[in-house]
Description:
This protein is mainly β. It has 3 helices and 13 strands; from the N terminus they run βββββαβββββββαβα. It is globular. It starts with 7 loop residues before the first strand and ends with a helix. The model has no long low-confidence stretch (mean pLDDT 94).
Amino acid sequence: MFTGIIEVIGTVSALENHKGNLDLWVSSPISSQLKIDQSVSHNGVCLTVIELREGEHRVTAIGETLSKTTIGQLKVGDAVNLERCMPADGRFDGHIVQGHVDQTGECTSMKDENGSWLFEFRYKPSAQNIVVDKGSICINGISLTAFDAVDNRFKVAIIPYTFANTNIQSVKPGSLVNLEFDIIGKYVARLLKL
Length: 194
């Protein structure tokens, strides 16, 4: 389980295709602290560390992951938001994030508000994916608060710290992002059959 508070930005250092799977080598300040079989969120996608080398770690994304996330679109040199699992005695600074991306969304606008940034996103309607005003949404692994949520659109405001310390700075209109909707909202929607 994660909280959506990004620890560091990693960099894709190599990509390797293996029988429909994609192996990613990522270099980061935390790679040397990781262990084999550890779960790490990569742009909001929970992936298992399978190999380590100096300052880098390798993870594998299978076909299901590639079909529902933006992981398959990564290129060498791309920035990746990284977060290790929350320790049992840790604080919930964000919200409950599973690392199970529900679908991708598209940035429809980005506006510099002279000290913050306003982003709008849209996503394909789904019976189980809902966003509510002042509710939580996870974008590329970042825990954010949604507002102006109407139909399949919502906005988020980004503070300077988040803009500088995550890869949201590279998101522009037309960019695809990984979306994980609030787990509580998903359970409520399913119970009510929305």
